[in-house]
Amino acid sequence: MGTLDNMAAPTPPSDARSQRERMLAGDLYIADDPELARDYQRAMALMERFNASSAADPDLRRRILEDLLGDFGEGSEIRPPLYCDYGYQIHIGARTFANFGLVALDVAKIVIGDDVQFGPNVQLLTPTHPTDAKLRRSKWEAAKPITIHDNAWLGGGAIVLAGVRIGENAIVGAGAAVNKGVPPNSLVVGNPARVVR
């Protein structure tokens, strides 16, 4: 995960899609684009407000997250600081809890189910880059979605890479680097993460 070995060549002349449309489709795109820059700046402003908010005002925190994220389920909580790219590609179910320092780079969709638990400093990294040096030099990039099913638990410092799906009730040990799917009801640890139960 994390590379683009089989991605289509950059924008053919007949491709009239915007860079944002290309990004949302999971195709190669250029992030240095005015429309994406506006989306990013909006997210940065909302994150700045959220990260500076007081624990004494949970209603304000929820309102900010409802504006920032694609979905934010009932009873869910994220403790600041939170870092993301756009926010609108993050969908969180009900009663999910994220401890301090969640990094959710949502160039592609990040779908998080109900009752998911995140330890501090978990990273969800959807961005990918071409293995072709010329494409990288030209600033092309893409992303693959991340899905975390209901009742999964990710320990502190876990890293989930692009394209990974974590099954229901699965546990990801603290500090694990997850580069492939995690079966339901399993425990993975290590770098790269491997199933131990």
Question: How would you describe what is shown here?
Answer:
This protein is of the alpha/beta class and 197 residues long. It has one domain: UDP N-Acetylglucosamine Acyltransferase, domain 1, CATH 2.160.10. It contains 4 helices and 20 strands. It has a 7-stranded mixed beta sheet with strand order 3-6-9-14-17-19-20, with no helix packed on it. The chain has a 5-stranded parallel beta sheet with strand order 2-5-8-13-16, covered by helices on one side. β19 and β20 form a beta hairpin. α2 packs antiparallel against α3. The protein is globular and about 45 Å long.
The counted number of beta strands is: 20
- Radius of gyration over C-alpha positions, nearest whole angstrom: 17 Å
**SS element count, helices:** 4
State the end-to-end CA separation.
23 Å
Report strand order across the widest sheet: 3-6-9-14-17-19-20
Gross geometry: globular
> Could you give a short account of the major beta sheet?
7 strands, mixed
The name of the CATH superfamily reads Hexapeptide repeat proteins
Q: Strand share of the residues?
A: 25-35%
CATH level 1 class label: Mainly Beta
Q: What is the SS-derived class?
A: alpha/beta
Q: Per CATH, what is the topology?
A: UDP N-Acetylglucosamine Acyltransferase, domain 1
Average pLDDT figure: 94
| Unreliable sequence segments | none
- Can you tell me the CATH architecture? 3 Solenoid
Portion in helices: 10-25%
Order of helices and strands: HEHHEEEEEEEEEEHEEEEEEEEE
Number of domain units: 1
